[in-house]
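step=predict obj=Raffinose/stachyose/melibiose transport system substrate-binding protein n=420
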Amino acid sequence: MKRIATLALALGTAMLMTSIGHAEQKTFKIWWFEEPTTAQGIVWKKALEEFKAKHPDINVSFEQKTFQQLQASGGMILNSDQAPDVLEYNKGNATAGLVASQGLLTNLDAYVKKEGWDKILNEGDFVLSRYDEKGIYGSGPVWGVSVFGEYVSCFYNIDMFEKAGLKPPTTLEEWVADLEAFKQKGLTPLALGAIDTSGQHLLASLAYTKADDAWIQNYQGLKAPLDGAPYLYAAQTLVDWVSKGYISKDSTGMKDPDAALLFTSGKAPMYVSGTWNLGTFASTIKDFKWGQFVIPTPKYSVGSTGNLWVVPKGSKNPDLAAEWISLTLSPKYQAELGNAGGVPIAADLSAITNPIGKNAAAVFKQISDKNGLGFYPDWPVPGYYDVLNQKDTGLFQGSLTAEQFVEQIKQVYDDAQENQ
């Protein structure tokens, strides 16, 4: 009996210890939507392994999400008990600003000082981190932190340009001349996902050729009814380019990955998209030399500091979330980001040996230093991303005229501006 009692006691103690062990082990949840082959996806995976090694007592759980998932359902997720401890979230009034104004994010002001982020990032880097009580960017508390930059450019096939005797354009007129030259050789010059982001990014890039400081500030800040003149010029230009064959009519049903494939397979000399492609292109394009040129505008480029690390209001581990943000902002991983072909926001350029990453970081700095980040066209209004994609498609398909396009996007914008 004594032996049985001793065994029972030992068993009970072991079970209690196991129970305590399980109870004490935290689960820390991280989400991001960067694809594994992108520079961010590659570098953050390395950082994740270091984070796990540093916290062997914590169950660090990572989930791969998609941009579309969080764009469509982010608010509902953040307002539920399914939210992670830290996640990548799209910046701008219509996304991060909206959920911040709804009280769904953690105010990070205290962590900015505690973690020393204000010593790494300048105030310009925090512009899209701050949102006021209405969800408008530029002022108020810090609700998220970006650790990379991004901008829209035109990727081009250097071999095809050299064979055609062409150089990357520095003016809009030169770009049109390049488009015409390739068309005369029987090629469709520009691959475009018209029903996806690259369609609206090209549209905005053309609009920004007619945009001054006041227009950008009014547009992105919902400060006035929409002045549609820059968009009218952009819409008319796109219709003209489709009619001339610079953009394929097939692009009206094409998404970005399909358009990117036309470029990476060497079938199209140009492709308009963002720096989030750099890592993927660097690893997949083997048969030709390629580069990128900034779409010629007087000042503004479609681009911004990158997506934000945000901490949901219901995060159970905000201190760990702040530690994770600091890790991805550290000199080690900022240099890694550049060497993976990404655009670090706070890297020592001398630590970047990859020419793609070094060039991208330098171009971003060039745009940023002249305050030329014009941001993205869907930001001002919640749901504007889908509106612009839908109306862009109508424009490319010919079911909307340039005037109808502007009239319809202006109505949505003006309603939001009036009711804010």
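step=describe
The chain has two domains: 27-148+306-329, 159-301+376-419.
step=end
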